[in-house]
Amino acid sequence: MLLSRHQVLGRRERDPERLERSAYLLLSRIDTQGPMSIGQLAEAFGLDTSTVNRQTAALLRCGLAERVADPDGGMARKLRITTEGGRRLTADREANRSCLARVIADWSPEEVQELEDVLVRLNRSAEALEGRYWPRVEEDAPRTADHHPAAPRESAPRAT
Length: 160
Fold this sequence. Notes:
Layout: H1 2-14, H2 21-33, H3 38-45, H4 49-61, E1 65-68, E2 78-81, H5 83-103, H6 109-130
Antiparallel strand pairs: 1-2
Helix pairs in contact: 1-5, 2-5, 3-4
């Protein structure tokens, strides 16, 4: 929680262009999974559709996302990240990485790897309890929206 608070406070004080937390999360999910409907986003985050509707309306007003026809031919419109949304998401990710790099600057490479391994395990354990998995590219599996690892792996890619 302290690390999260450190990033949130730094976000507001250092750069007014930084994304709100909800915008960052929604754009990250759409970036990872591809265009998604409001219903899909609500299900992915375990939120009420009215909540996600308000949050996505803000993304649309700011030009960070746009509505598009379902690329798979479905009836529901989907949200896709705009060029500006992608730029802002990339900038925020870099700022978050920079913030974390300062926090662990004097750690050994082994300590950094241990933190990464434990955080991957923590995230996957939380996903398993919730039954909601964040889509990710696995080392030995093709990227699919519904690929859910059954158990934490010993070695995993870096989380963003």
